[in-house]
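pls design
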C-alpha cells in the first residue's frame, strides 16, 4: 500500500483567473498545482515579512526610533 504524501484541496475560481493560471502554468511548463503551491509559499513569506515589519515598527516607536540617525545615536 502506497502512502499519499500530498493532500488534495479543491477551490473555486472565477473563469478569468482560472484561465490565467492555466496559461501561466503552460508558459512555465509547470502544473497548476505547482503554480498554486508556489503562490501560497510567496503569500506565506509576504505575510510573515509584514508581521515582522509591523513588530519592528512598533518596537522602534516604543523606543522613539524615528530615523537612521536615532539608531546610530542609540548604538553609539
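designed seq:
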Amino acid at each position: 500500500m502506497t502512502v499519499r504524501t500530498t493532500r488534495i484541496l479543491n477551490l473555486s475560481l472565477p473563469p478569468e483567473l482560472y484561465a490565467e493560471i492555466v496559461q501561466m502554468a503552460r508558459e512555465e511548463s509547470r502544473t497548476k498545482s505547482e503554480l498554486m503551491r508556489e503562490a501560497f509559499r510567496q503569500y506565506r513569506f509576504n505575510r510573515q515579512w509584514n508581521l515582522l515589519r509591523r513588530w519592528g515598527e512598533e518596537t522602534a516607536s516604543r523606543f522613539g526610533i524615528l530615523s537612521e540617525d536615532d539608531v546610530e545615536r542609540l548604538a553609539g
